[in-house]
Predict the structure.
Amino acid sequence: MDYKLFSILTLATTLIACGSDSSDPDLPDPPKVVTNFITLGFDIQIYQRKESTSLNADSFLRGEVYSGRSPLTYRDVIIGLDTQTESIQITAHNSTFQLFSLIKKAYALSPAPPETEEAIKSITITSAYDFNDEYPSGSSLNEFFLVTNTSIGNQFYTYNNDVRTYFNVNKFIEVNSKNDMAHVGFALDFVLNKEPQLTNNITFYIKIELDNGEIFSMETPEVTYKPTGQ
């Protein structure tokens, strides 16, 4: 018998033996139940950036919900979106023998993290007020907002000289449009990378379009900014 063929048959036999129920090897594996999540909408909230002893960019973490009673600097305001989902369980039956599936089963280390069914096609952030002289009310502010947190599977930062560099909204969409693992996710945070020139409170509007054609429009609570250094 050809040596390569013998090796393949030996591997297949070993994997089948390892994956079978020793009490009744003739019984097939039970059907696999997969939980999928369907996006229903988003809850939007303003958070103060969590206090940290580090000035490192990695410390953009949600703190308390912003009360609106005192102004914050632009780098201390986090716009947080939490995805509202519905879970659907799908039962998958394996009726045929597949060597690759056995190998994958034998060497899997942990279950895959949960994902939503849909991916984000586009995000548009605008303001109800002039952001500055060059960006009046209604202008896209995507280039001024960084994506500082999202669910596993999405890419939202890179490293430059060992320093984490977050993508702005436009870059986030561009990168993940080519990412097969991208999905809506369960949380999405935005932080400004440019100080607004304002003399009043500001409200932001966020529109998200999914790859299934669904469009969701949201409005943030009002935020009062103060100049950095005060």
